[in-house]
Design goal:
Argininosuccinate synthetase, chain A, domain 2, ATP-binding, 16 strands, five-stranded parallel sheet, alpha/beta, 3 domains, Rossmann fold, Arginosuc_synth_CS, five-stranded antiparallel sheet
């Protein structure tokens, strides 16, 4: 019997795929879940039980959390990447990591097929298909939901016919949880005007008292939280646990899909948004204006290309090398205040702070040049533009 590796989450789409691939296609199903830091140990156990209850031959958990940080998230922080100035690529970056891990797993067990539960409307189908085509071109791709053009109601009905109960109420919202944020899709995000109701958000707002936290960065990486040096992955996870109950980082992203249609998705991503804003503030104190300018341009391309699944393009390694090099002086502490639905960057402390009173105080005085120096500089600095206006009579 031919083997198929199924990218499995335990949700509606991949539950359908389990039954369909074994019962209708006659394949030996090997489910695999790629943990990118969004699952607790108990959740992983429950997902494994569900996979076996659905009749898979084997189920595996591949923990990619550290790799995900090392090869993706680190550079999103370095680049202060927010897609359309809003979205921290919570799912986009994760899917690339997951697709790569699943391709490697299919290779490892010698599968003839690989399957995923993407529909025909979104970005994931392109990310998964493309990465599989690049890394495992000899393995055939099966996409039951896309190929059969199924609605969620039809999937639920199919599962019921095969004795699998699925709560239609729970299926109202599609939730994807990872270390870099949780996405939320539902009927409201299919419109241009509705917003998600309070009950749709996975984390209820329970924290109301103001709280200050200190994030310490070392060469651009968040290494400590409130003085506890726990490393970047733990900083992200612990900051998320502290800040998400404030309702910080909730928003709806409107973007262009890879296949050219507009889409909306809700997300909650307290830690990513706080870290990106904190890191950017530290950079504004420690980098020169042209470092900041070129970083912005390259990081925008990097984020867009990652969003479109193109992490295996060698140009991404080139940009990563540039981003890494810019972080040599991005070390110090950033002080943040948390309040319900908002956060404030209070300020920073760094031995690399270029805003030093040794060189003068902005708007008041300086210690490096005289007023006469500035008069001469101003004439020279505008000289070519001045000549253009004289020559062209403007």
């Amino acid at each position: 019997m031919d083997k198929v590796v199924l990218a499995f989450s335990g949700g509606l789409d991949t539950s359908f795929c389990c039954i369909y691939l074994s019962k209708d296609r006659g394949l030996e199903v090997h489910s695999v879940i790629v943990n990118t830091g969004g699952f607790s140990a108990d959740e992983l156990v429950q997902i494994e039980k569900r996979a076996y209850a659905l009749g898979v031959k084997s189920h595996a958990v591949v923990d990619e959390t550290q790799n995900y940080y090392d090869h993706s998230l680190k550079y999103l922080i370095f680049g202060n990447v927010l897609k359309n100035a809003t979205y921290p690529l919570s799912v986009s970056a994760e899917r690339v990591s997951q697709a790569t891990a699943i391709a490697n797993y299919a290779k490892k067990i010698g599968a003839e097929y690989v399957a995923h539960g993407s529909t025909g409307a979104g970005n994931d189908q392109v990310r998964f298909d493309m990465i599989f085509n690049i890394l495992i071109p000899e393995v055939e791709i099966i996409t039951p939901i896309r190929d059969l053009k199924l609605s969620r109601e039809e999937e639920i009905e199919y599962l019921h016919k095969h004795g699998v109960e699925f709560n239609a109420e729970k299926a109202k919202y599609s939730i994807n949880k990872g270390i870099w944020g949780t996405s939320v899709g539902g009927k409201e995000t299919l419109t241009s005007h509705d917003t998600l109701p309070e009950e749709a958000w996975p984390t209820p707002v329970t924290s109301t008292e103001p709280r200050r936290v200190t994030i310490e960065f070392e060469k651009g990486e968040p290494v400590a939280l409130d003085g506890n040096r726990i490393g970047p992955v733990k900083v992200i996870q612990e900051l998320q646990a502290i800040a998400q109950p404030y309702g910080i980082g909730r928003d709806i992203h409107v973007g262009d899909t890879i296949i050219g249609i507009k889409g909306r998705v809700g997300f909650e991503a307290a830690a990513p948004l706080i870290l990106i804003k904190a890191h950017h503030t530290l950079e504004k104190h420690t980098l020169t204006k042209w470092q900041l300018s070129w970083k912005d341009q390259l990081a925008a391309f990097y984020g867009n290309w990652m969003h479109e699944g193109q992490m295996h393009d060698p140009v991404m390694r080139d940009i990563e090398a540039f981003l890494q090099n810019t972080q040599q002086t991005v070390s110090g502490k950033v002080f943040v205040e948390l309040n319900p639905y908002r956060f404030t960057i209070i300020g920073i402390e760094s031995s690399h702070d270029l805003m030093s009173n040794k060189f003068g105080s902005y708007g008041e005085m300086n210690n490096t040049w005289s007023g006469e120096d500035v008069k001469g500089f101003s004439k020279i600095f505008g000289n070519q533009v001045s000549i253009w206006h004289k020559v062209n009579g403007r």
